[in-house]
Amino acid sequence: MTKRGLCTILAEDGNRLVLCPIYKAPDLTHRADIPLSWRDELILGIKHNAVVRAVPFLKQRNAVTPQQAKLSTFTLTQLRLRTNRELQINALESTRLPFFSGRHASNHLHHSHA
Description:
Elements: E1 7-13, E2 16-23, E3 33-35, H1 38-44, E4 51-53, E5 57-60, H2 73-93
């Protein structure tokens, strides 16, 4: 748990965590949303139609309250794959990339102007 709500840990980097938010039945869906299985919803204690959004953000470890619940291996694998895809799509949409994407801002795309 964070101040933003329920999240899952995607990766750890020293004292920082890479998190992805979990939304309880959002009104609008995003291309990065991964529906949670009934098992994941049951374990997390949330209602039907919850999603985990493959849009990572950083948080200091001490700003996160750990929970005992754990997403299924299948959902975590989907999350990792979708997060990589989202980072690639964002790279095409923007010249500024998150520093944890493994690429540097100097590797930005070159645009031609007509």
